[in-house]
Amino acid sequence: MQPIVSNLKRALRAELRERRRTRTSTERAEATEAFTQNLIALTLENKATFVACYLSAPNEPNTRPYLNWAFENGVRTLFPITREDGLLDWAHGDGESEVEGLFGTPEPVGELLGPIAINDVDLIIVPAAAIDVTGMRMGWGRGYFDKTLGSMKKCPPVYAVIYDDELIDAVPREVHDQPVNGIVTPTRILSF
């Protein structure tokens, strides 16, 4: 059963990567403005003063303008740092200074904090390949966020940032996969 689910995930991820890769610069710019406004609204709605958020890679929904807003408005941010053992460390950063992480993704330059640093945040904003209508998240296949979210005793709200067409009827699911509380797209904030 597991190899079938794994193959379904691999095929769906390939399709989603291609969709993201072929978005025009105009589509990306318009989406970035809308993502930013919706992420700000989500932060204010949750009265979040401390947020965990990823640094977006070039083909991901752009979190950079939102992070600039957070920095300018006194919202503290925590960024994930990948480790070889499959866990995430965390670091404070300015949202601008970065290095290339283990898998070529951007990671912050800053004091390295351990995996439990995320326990103090008010809101978690995660990347995703797709989310289904029940809130089940499908990531990009390494399981970092699933391990982190699955290990938290008291987890704050978790929202995935995706394009509108990445909200689908059902994602292939494995036992370790973790749901999210909602999504942020260019057109809406949706809570499950």
What does this structure look like?
With 192 residues, this protein is of the alpha/beta class. It has one domain (2-191): NagB/RpiA/CoA transferase-like (Rossmann fold, 3-Layer(aba) Sandwich). The chain is built from 4 helices and 13 strands. It has helices spanning 2-21, 25-45, 64-72, 144-151, and strands at residues 50-53, 76-82, 88-91, 98-100, 106-108, 112-113, 123-127, 130-132, 137-138, 158-161, 167-168, 182-184, 189-191. The chain has an 8-stranded mixed beta sheet. The protein has a 3-stranded mixed beta sheet with strand order 9-8-11, with helices on one face. Strand 12 and strand 13 (189-191) form a beta hairpin. The longest helix is centred in the N-terminal third of the chain and has 21 residues, at 25-45.
What structural keywords apply?
8-stranded mixed beta sheet; Rossmann fold; 3-stranded mixed beta sheet; single chain; globular; alpha/beta; about 190 residues; metal ion binding
Helix and strand element order: HHEHEEEEEEEEHEEEE
| Strand percent estimate | 15-25%
Specify the number of helices.
Answer: 4
Described by its quaternary structure, the protein is single chain
Number of domains: 1
**Straight-line distance between termini:** 28 Å
SS-based structural class?
A: alpha/beta
Biggest sheet character = 8 strands, mixed
- Give the uncertain stretches in residue-range form: none
CATH first level: Alpha Beta
Name the shape in a single word.
Answer: globular
- The strands making up the biggest β-sheet line up spatially as 6-3-2-1-7-10-12-13
**At the fourth CATH level, what is the homologous superfamily?**
NagB/RpiA/CoA transferase-like
